[in-house]
Design goal:
The protein has a 3-stranded antiparallel β-sheet with strand order 1-2-3, with no helix packed on it. It is globular. By secondary structure, the chain is an alpha+beta fold. The protein is built from 3 helices and 3 strands, in the order H-H-E-E-E-H.
Length: 98
């Protein structure tokens, strides 16, 4: 059975071209930190291009924040919908790892 995230990224052509795991990227520098994640400038080992990656640590979230994972998936859905908006960062891919 597919998870909600698997359905969200299924057939994403960018996964093959850019990367679909943290190991497909080289971290160049930390750009910032927010309430739920850290943002890095990264370089794809697959195509050599530079991207921005937000890394969210779900393991540090308590049961009281049970909606946290759903909110993160919703953020990805919104970014996909607004992919061509001139004032929103371009979304390429997302992946979840243990």
């Amino acid at each position: 059975m597919m998870t909600e995230h698997q359905r969200l990224v299924e057939g994403n052509e960018n996964a093959r071209r850019i990367g679909d795991s943290k190991s497909d990227f080289e971290v160049l520098e930390k750009l910032g930190r927010g309430a739920h994640g850290v943002v890095f400038k990264v370089k794809s080992r697959k195509n050599g291009q530079t991207y921005v990656m937000k890394i969210v640590d779900f393991s540090s979230q308590s049961e009281a924040e049970g909606q946290f994972r759903s909110n993160a998936i919703r953020e990805v859905q919104v970014l996909k919908l607004l992919k061509d908006h001139p004032h929103v960062i371009k979304y390429y891919n997302s992946f979840m790892e243990d």
